[in-house]
Amino acid sequence: MKSNLDLEPCLRQHSSHGVIRVVKLNELGVHSRTTYRRCQPGGPWTYLLPGIVLLSNSRPTARQRIEAALLHARGAGLLTGFEAARRFGLRNVPTGNEVHLLVPADCQFRSPGFVLIERTTHLPQRMNVGGVPTAPPARAILDGVRRLRDRDAVTALLIEARQSGLCSPAELSAELQTGSRRGTALPRAVLKSLADDLRSVAEAHAGKLWRRAGLPPPSRNPVLLHADGRYIATPDLWWDEVALAWEIDSFEHHFRRHDYAATLERNARYAGAGVILVQTVPSRLKRAPDAVINDLRAAYDIAQSRPRPPLTLRRAPA
Predict the structure, then answer these.
(1) What does the pLDDT look like over 96-125, one tens digit per residue?
(2) Between 19 and 186, where is the model more confident?
């Protein structure tokens, strides 16, 4: 048998991103006792899952955890859930190391360590995402959010999926109809709210507050123009009958000098056009909802008491 130093490049060549099965190590001439010894605390290797080794003692990367999970499923698994959502480029994904795999219903794999095995009779067509067999976006995202109980987290991820063009509300709704119904009540409710063209979690909270304030339904994200066609702004919420705008302005957004200047210019255009403007930071929607409602009612009364300025409105393109 070759020395450990000579054998290491060969082992890595036969591994998947440094992850390899113990059975394969045996085939390559590494005895099980040697593997066990090298995976002990302080040793150069690490057991990631039963029978699966990382040829390093460093913290495994996301890709290495995925490879270990796929080896555990012996080629039958599809990556889904939040780790798949990250690989599709989404950012509003809950943190965690869990690797969620879909496998055919007749498979008997368990869920060891960081791996969640879900058996399904509705195994979707696999996609290849960077060399990883992955469920399609709508299925992957819904497999993740079905396990969430935080409405804001579900809303943020579904809005990002829609805005990124990764999948449409229609595709998500269709997947909800054909897939497992377990844990789908919250995603169904959120998808229904997305029909109102919500662009953020903050807008969802804002919708609850204007209803509590007893105000008429506003328009969402229209394009406001002067009578001569000059652009004014695209408010988050707009009461056209009284020319009242409500902007949900992110506090973090204002730390960027360019965006802060753009916000000031927008506000100046509102003022020049005679628009009454309410500005609210997202945290205040949840921290002080009654105060926000009072602000809205007062602003609406002021806007209603003066002549409506000559503005035109058109819907933003979808």
Answers:
(1) 999 999 999 999 999 999 999 999 998 999
(2) 19
Q: What are 100's two structure tokens?
A: 């969620």
Q: Which two tokens stand for residue 4?
A: 């450990």
Structure tokens at 270: 């509102």
Gyration radius (Cα) of the chain, Å: 27
Q: Rounded CA gap, 166 and 151, in Å?
A: 20
Q: Is the pLDDT of residue 68 over 50?
A: yes
The model carries a pTM of 0.66
Identify the CA nearest to 136 among candidates 184, 172, 160, 183.
Answer: 172
**Nearest Cα residue to 220 out of 204, 105, 293:** 204
Of the candidates 256, 259, 233, the residue with the CA atom closest to the CA atom of residue 246: 233
Hey, CA dihedral for 174, 162, 188, 185, is it positive or negative? positive
pLDDT band at 253 (very low <50, low <70, confident <90, very high): very low
**Digit-coded pLDDT (tens) for 141-150:** 999 999 998 8
Query: Secondary structure of the chain in the HEC alphabet?
Result: CCCHHHHHHHHHHCCECCEEEHHHHHHCCCCHHHHHHHCCCCCCCEEEECCEEECCCCCCCHHHHHHHHHHHCCCCCEEEHHHHHHHCCCCCCCCCCCEEEEEECCCCCCCCCCEEEEEECCCCCCEEECCEEECCHHHHHHHHHCCCCCHHHHHHHHHHHHHCCCCCHHHHHHHHHHCCCCCCHHHHHHHHHHCCCCCCHHHHHHHHHHHHCCCCCCEECEEEEECCCCEEECCCEEECCCCEEEEECCCHHHHCHHHHHHHHHHHHHHHHHCCEEEEECHHHHHHCHHHHHHHHHHHHHHHHHCCCCCEEEEECCC
C-beta of residue 99 within 8 angstroms of C-beta of residue 133: no
Model confidence at 5, in pLDDT bands (50, 70, 90)?
very low
